Amino acid sequence: MAEFKFDAKKAFADEFRKPTKSGKLGPIVRSVKIVKDVPFKDGIDFNEGIVAKEGMVRIDIYKKEKKYFIVPVYRYHIANRIKPNKAAVASKPESEWIEMDDSYEFKFSLYKNDLIELRYEKKQGYFGYYDGCNRSTASITIEEHDSSNKYEGIGVKTGVLEFNKYEVNVLGKFYKVREGKR
After folding, report:
1. What does pTM read for this prediction?
2. How many domains does the chain have?
3. Which of 1, 59, 68, 85 is the most exposed place for a label (fewest CB within 10 A)?
4. β partners of residue 115
5. Domain ranges, residue 95
């Protein structure tokens, strides 16, 4: 294939058969899989290859100068005791994400079904349960308490007055969580 610049018609104009151990004629090759180098956006180096990141366990929320930042935390981070410190930036590869340093204030970690509140300067806010994060758009999904509405693509970086997390007790009362240490 490489010799014929990956033109299958030219490369296999003559009949081509699979080789056999005995030396007899093998079956005719009717198709060939061609593996192309596809730019893989993100993954973990593993055995001379790349494995997709899966299993986002939580997100860590940071704040700096009235802007909030989302740092995704995956299973492999926890298994390998890695503290991720790069905040997702919409439409950018992880290599171009913002690195969290001491100038960023850690607010809290969010797990699925944590009760949260977002209040904005110029639009209506959200009060519901954290349902997930889209790292490619640096946004979150919030679901209402009765699952009647799900709001996707909620940006948290700009225009947010307050981003709060709440704990709910067994009686259904909720209390604002204080900011903690990571």
Report:
1. 0.71
2. 1
3. 1
4. 129, 166
5. 51-176
